[in-house]
């Protein structure tokens, strides 16, 4: 199966564990596409929620998806710094239609000073029961929360000081 190439415009589809669509990002420009990692950029893209409501993102963002890690990272470029929104999720898959992943509710918001907050623990517990997350998935997700916090504290991967700036510069070449 062919992966998206640099410069391709793709959609991103987020699902819930029960297979229902959660959210769709209309247009993201692929900046890097490999078996293990897809990095994309977008700005003011339309997002459609499961209930049909739409909204438009407010700022440029660099998106980091990995085929082996159970999280993805969105670096949002704002006037006062870079904010990160991290979704605890399944690794991505690419099926020639869209980049797809399962959103597992838990999120980490990271501020420009690299402080962070774990979000939506109540939603996670609710969905864990209602969608019957297997114990092995629960364990994987909790381990990946810890791995993500380790990356944030160590400024690894998408949290390294130059990561967002470098990929944003590349994104600008496609506009």
UniProtKB/TrEMBL annotation:
<feature type="binding site">
    <location>
        <position position="107"/>
    </location>
    <ligand>
        <name>Mg(2+) 1</name>
    </ligand>
</feature>
<dbReference type="InterPro" id="IPR016882">
    <property type="entry name" value="SA1684"/>
</dbReference>
<feature type="active site" description="Proton donor">
    <location>
        <position position="23"/>
    </location>
</feature>
<feature type="binding site">
    <location>
        <position position="105"/>
    </location>
    <ligand>
        <name>Mg(2+) 2</name>
    </ligand>
</feature>
<dbReference type="InterPro" id="IPR050212">
    <property type="entry name" value="Ntdp-like"/>
</dbReference>
<feature type="binding site">
    <location>
        <position position="87"/>
    </location>
    <ligand>
        <name>Mg(2+) 1</name>
    </ligand>
</feature>
<comment type="similarity">
    <text>Belongs to the Ntdp family.</text>
</comment>
<feature type="binding site">
    <location>
        <position position="107"/>
    </location>
    <ligand>
        <name>Mg(2+) 2</name>
    </ligand>
</feature>
<keyword id="KW-0460">Magnesium</keyword>
<comment type="function">
    <text>Has nucleoside phosphatase activity towards nucleoside triphosphates and nucleoside diphosphates.</text>
</comment>
<keyword id="KW-0378">Hydrolase</keyword>
<dbReference type="Pfam" id="PF04167">
    <property type="entry name" value="DUF402"/>
</dbReference>
<feature type="binding site">
    <location>
        <position position="103"/>
    </location>
    <ligand>
        <name>Mg(2+) 1</name>
    </ligand>
</feature>
<dbReference type="InterPro" id="IPR035930">
    <property type="entry name" value="FomD-like_sf"/>
</dbReference>
<protein>
    <recommendedName>
        <fullName>Nucleoside triphosphate/diphosphate phosphatase</fullName>
        <ecNumber>3.6.1.15</ecNumber>
        <ecNumber>3.6.1.6</ecNumber>
    </recommendedName>
</protein>
<dbReference type="GO" id="GO:0000287">
    <property type="term" value="F:magnesium ion binding"/>
</dbReference>
<dbReference type="GO" id="GO:0017111">
    <property type="term" value="F:ribonucleoside triphosphate phosphatase activity"/>
</dbReference>
<feature type="domain" description="DUF402">
    <location>
        <begin position="19"/>
        <end position="154"/>
    </location>
</feature>
<keyword id="KW-0479">Metal-binding</keyword>
<dbReference type="GO" id="GO:0017110">
    <property type="term" value="F:nucleoside diphosphate phosphatase activity"/>
</dbReference>
<dbReference type="InterPro" id="IPR007295">
    <property type="entry name" value="DUF402"/>
</dbReference>
<feature type="binding site">
    <location>
        <position position="123"/>
    </location>
    <ligand>
        <name>Mg(2+) 2</name>
    </ligand>
</feature>
<feature type="binding site">
    <location>
        <position position="120"/>
    </location>
    <ligand>
        <name>Mg(2+) 2</name>
    </ligand>
</feature>
């Amino acid at each position: 199966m062919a992966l998206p190439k640099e410069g391709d415009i793709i959609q991103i589809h987020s699902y819930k564990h029960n297979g229902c669509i959660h959210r769709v990002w209309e247009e993201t420009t692929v900046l890097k596409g490999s078996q293990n990692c897809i990095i994309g950029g977008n700005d003011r893209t339309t997002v459609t929620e499961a209930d049909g409501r739409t909204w438009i993102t407010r700022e440029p963002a660099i998106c980091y998806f990995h085929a082996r890690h159970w999280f993805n990272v969105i670096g949002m470029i704002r006037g006062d710094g870079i904010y990160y929104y991290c979704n605890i999720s399944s690794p991505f898959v690419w099926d020639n239609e869209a980049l797809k992943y399962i959103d597992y509710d838990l999120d980490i918001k990271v501020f420009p000073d690299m402080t962070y907050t774990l979000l939506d623990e109540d939603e996670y517990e609710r969905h864990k029961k209602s969608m019957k997350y297997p114990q092995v998935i629960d364990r994987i997700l909790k381990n990946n929360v810890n791995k993500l916090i380790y990356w944030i504290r160590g400024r690894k991967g998408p949290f390294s000081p130059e990561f967002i700036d470098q990929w944003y510069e590349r994104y600008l070449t496609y506009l």
